[in-house]
User: Fold this.
Amino acid sequence: MSGQTITKTLVDGLAKQASEYTVWDSKLPGFGVRVRPTGAKSFIIVYRAGTGRTAPVRRYTVAAVGKLAPEAARTQAKILLGNIANGADPAAEKRANRPKRDRLTFDELAQLYLDQYAKVRKSSWKNDEGYLKKPRAKWKRRIAAEITDDDVAELLEEIGATAPVGANRTQSVLHTLFSWAKEPGRRHVPTNPVADMRRRYQESPRERVLTDEEIRTLWWGLDDPDLPASRPIALALRFILATMVRPGQSAGLLIPELVGFTGEEPQYHIPKNRVKKRREVIVPLNALAVAAVREAIARNDQGAVFSSWAKPDPKADCDDQTDAKPGLLPITRDALSAALNGRPAKGKRPARKGIREHLGMAHFTPHDLRRTAATIARRGGAKREDVKALLDHLEGDVTATYDKYDMLPEKRLVASILEAELRKIVGTKPNYCRPEIVFERDNVVAIEEPKIAVAS
Assistant:
């Protein structure tokens, strides 16, 4: 299509077709707007890279429609065509500045994916970063375009030997990464080696709920002075059980997010960046939750509630930093899991016993404490829909978009029921003092009193 002046009205009226087509501008030869079968539109120029009829014809994208108005795109195209007349080749320059497929390593590709896609589009990008650690370590200097489905299968088998769920999550992240990397305009890899790969490990629904005896063991065991975990970690785990919040929401609690903490109705206002669906959530705090927070902030009265002594990372994002005292940073969700799991010995690094092993408990995760708390509240008489509200489980229908009632009174009642049930379960604190030594009366050896010499 040709011979038309490219205007906003013309561009807006261009409809997608079964195949790609271009409308050329009547004012500036070589300038046009391309329409892809997907409906995507972009301003382009076509030119010969060199002189004579044998010079290769190149196409160069000036800008996507929407980023530049037609008049501005035409002006930019005129400048480019003028530079081309003086010997420039913008398409070749663009290719030269783009990472070449035959030398881009997987580690470089993974970082590009995190910076250009995950951090831009996903609030959970740190999960992607975590699941890419093992692939990056294994394929660090491998050329990304040469990684095959067999390489991926081998990696997933290694991960799945100890962490089948982790293998599935790694597979999902790799699928997204390679799909992004092969899109037109990037072409960092020719194919997606994960495209036709089925999920290798069957996941069972998570149903672990701690028994009353396990709850009592854990609750008081977290006070054990020999516990192989820091006090903030122990308090953050207890906070999950007392509130039903997600592990990351417990670990990330900041003092400014405590509203009315010294009053009769203390609340935790969870910010959007730590909530699914990106909205603020209010969680009422019962006395058990308040007690955990009070002890934590007695150690650190600003910034993060559950903080650890660590050197701040100068390269970390601003969102990851707090106004905590120098050296104090919020603990992480992963730190909670690591404290429960412990770690095996590796090289010169000694083994570290986990909380579960120390207390002689069967496997459970921080998230299982949330499920346990919900079960306890329901058993205590809390209504299912009220427990659902405190868990922040959203309805997926249209009505939920308009119904903004926060159910705070109902959630407060659930928190009170949960507190009462937990107090029944944990009872009074066990006496961990050294047992009294009892002497058998028949097994006592008499000690003769020393004779004192009396002067005559």
In short: Residues 408-426 form the longest helix (19 residues). Residues 47 and 455 are 128 Å apart (CA to CA). The two ends are 138 Å apart (CA to CA). Residues 106-181 form one domain.
